[in-house]
Every structure is written in C-alpha cells, then in structure tokens.
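Page 42, continued from yesterday. The earlier attempt failed because a stray header line got pasted into the input along with the sequence. Redoing it now with the clean sequence only.
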Amino acid sequence: MRQSPPAMDEVKLSIVTPVYNVSLYIERCVQSAVDQLGRGDEIILVDDGSTDDSGQYCDWFQRSYGDCIKVIHQQNKGLSEARNTGIREASGDYIVFLDSDDWLMRGALAQIKSILFKRRVDVLIGKFRAYQMPPKAGIFDDPTDFDKQLGGDELNAEHVKRGIFENNMMCTAWRNVVRREFIKRNALLFEPGILHEDEEWCPRLYAAAQSFAFNTRPFYAYRLRDGSIVYSRDWRKTLGLFAAVQMVSVTKERHPEMEKGLTRKYNELAGRALQTLPAFNDEERTRLFEALPKYPAMSRYILLLKGKGVIAANQEQAAPNRSSEAFEKIVTESDDGELLAKWALISYYTMMKSVREAIKNRSDTTAAASVESPAPTPTPKPAPSPMNRRPLKESMERMMQQGGATRLSNVQDPLAASVTTAATAATTAVTATAAIASAAASVATAVDKAQTQVQPESGQATIV
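This time it went through. Structure tokens are written below.
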C-alpha cells in the first residue's frame, strides 16, 4: 500500500468495484488499486452473486489487506444495483468507479488527489487507455481533446456541458470521479434492470454538475474483451438505450441551453436502438415493445423518422374533415405513452415492409439486368471508417442481407397470432401491455388498409 503526501490525504477516495464472474481478472484489478491507496481511502467490492471464484477472491483480499477493503455479497441484481450498493456503503469524499475486469494506471490515485486537493469540484473527467484483448490485440488512447472539444475552460461549467454533448464524448461512469455528497444530493443512482446504464446516467450527472475539472493524463485502463457486456447481444441493452433516450429528452427540456448537443445525443442513441431491433427474435422484440409506453421519447423518434407519412395517410382516409396536421401534432406532442407506442409500432413495421420491398425490387432489377448483359467487374470499396455511422436504411438492408431477412419476414405473423390469442381471452379493460400487443396484432391490417377511428374530443386513436 502506497501512502500519498499528507496534504493530499485530506481527499478521501472510495473505489467502487462491482464483481461478477471475473476470477481471471479481479486480482490485477484490485491489486492496481491497493498499491495506490492513501490514508482514509477504501475499496468496496460488491460481489453481485458470482457463480465462479470471484467472491472468494474478494474475501481473500479483505483478509489480506484489512479494513481498507469492504466486501459485500448480494444476490445477482445487475451492474447498476451493484454500483448503487457500493455508493451507499461509501464513506469517502469522492467515488472512483472501477470495473472488475479493468485496472488503474500507475499513479492514478495520486494524480486524482492532486487535482481535487486544489479544486473540490463536483465531477473530475479523466482520460483512459483501452487494451484490446486477443485475437484483435491493440492499444489506443482516449481521443478526447479537452482543449478543442470541451473548450479547455474547466471553470465554465455550461461551456463544458455543451462541449460534452456537442462533441459526443464517450459516456462511461468510470471516466468520472464524482463527489459523494453531490451524488447523494442529486439522487444520482444508476437505473436498475437495464444495460447501457452509463448512457442513461451520464446525461443526468453532467446536467446536474456545477463545477468540473479535467484529468488530461490517462488514469484508467479499459479492457476490451469478447465476453464483456459491451460485446454481448441482449435485448436489455436496447431497453437501456430506450431509457437513455428518454433521459436525454427530459434533460433537453430542462436545460434548453444544451439543446444542440443533447439533440445530437438523442438522435445518436435512438438511432442505435432502432438499428438493433431486426437482430432480435419475436419474443425479445415483444418484450421491448411492451416496455415502449414507458419511453415516449423513443416512440416519438420513430414517428418523427417515418411516422409523419403514416399518420397523414391514415388520418386523411379515416377522417377527411379533420386536418392531418392537427392529428400529427397530437401524436408527436402527446404525453400519452400508450398512444405514441401504438403509432410507433405501425410506423416501425411499415418501415420494415418498405425496406423489404425496396430490397426485393432491387434484387429483381439486378437479376433482369444480369440476363441482358454480363455483370461488370466489381470495384473494390474502401473499408468504412469505424466512426462513420451509416444511414438507418442502409444499415437495416445490410443486416437483412447478412441473414436478417428470414427473421424480418416472419416478424408480423407469429407476433400477431400470439397477441390475438391473448386479446381474445381478455374479459376486462385492455391494459397497457395488451394495448401494445393489440397494436402489434393489427399491424398487417393497419399497414394495408391504413384506416383509423379518431375521437377528436380526447385525441385518442383506436386501430381497426
């Protein structure tokens, strides 16, 4: 254990580390922190129901190093709740988030204390170094340029906030060292039950902060490995993106001075969420759609992207005496999550149908042209930049061409059949979940006939 200079030991750090099935990595993680602890610092290891030897490693560290390490064993609740447990148990002035498969760079804690000793800010934003594990081994540094992207003026909190979102800075909990009392005062716990929790948490953190500082040297070693949450395919990750989209939307309303940057973040997160949907099976997609009423901002994104034409077409046929613009305003500005989710479902499946038809027409045209003339020699295309996000339609087409077309072609029928059976059995008022299911069951009819019954007094729509 390394002692910091006495003056800097006035800043006490609590290192919160959630632990779940990381027996191969936890020793390096904990040892990197233990070697740098100063007087009053602590490490809080939250064993989140590990099924390997990770929990035993935690106990061994506590026996070996004593009171500077706290160990908490709990049933598996997920990363968010494990971090929340650590936050509640923390006693330090500042909280450092350290994931159990990562580690701290040499001298990181002294570096952090040196900065916070001079200025007791709400949030210290740091840099990281990423280590890509084999087979794609490599090392790269965090590209964030605090001077260019965040203005270099850490004393101007509003300027920093705008820079974070306008330049799309990578949002992770572990790049931030946060004052514990600031977290407590603003109820900045992590949203339980979702993945991509950092994307939901960071906008709340930055919007609430009144003071910032920058750590311009990499202090955090980020391990990229195939078995981590980052690379896993899980519908809960998309649910986490739904929650992040909703939080960014709410934050944008509360902080109009950051509208430009938050709008960009909103579009980025919502676009990522939408692009994941074709990869899921019917059951996973149904779970997401059942949750959609809780996240009206996500429904509104789908409607704004594709729903205007769908709404207008349905309205003109269902109620010609009422302007489609008025009904569109009700839907796009309504706070009724169920109504928005119904229209979002129709818009989504309409979009999927049009994409499939476009691909089919393109394939037919290509086949006809190949009969008339020999195919030209293909020109090799340069590899796309990793930071270049393709348009939504092109991304969907690519996913379908790579094996998603079979899954997408069967989205409506199995889902409609199962939902129709459930709706028939219902004998009482339709609940929120059943409303979404009914909308999905009526997708084929709604898309082909585009008919709607509208009640102008309440602004509600019933799909038939």
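Notes: The mean pLDDT is 75.
Reminder to self: strip header lines before submitting.
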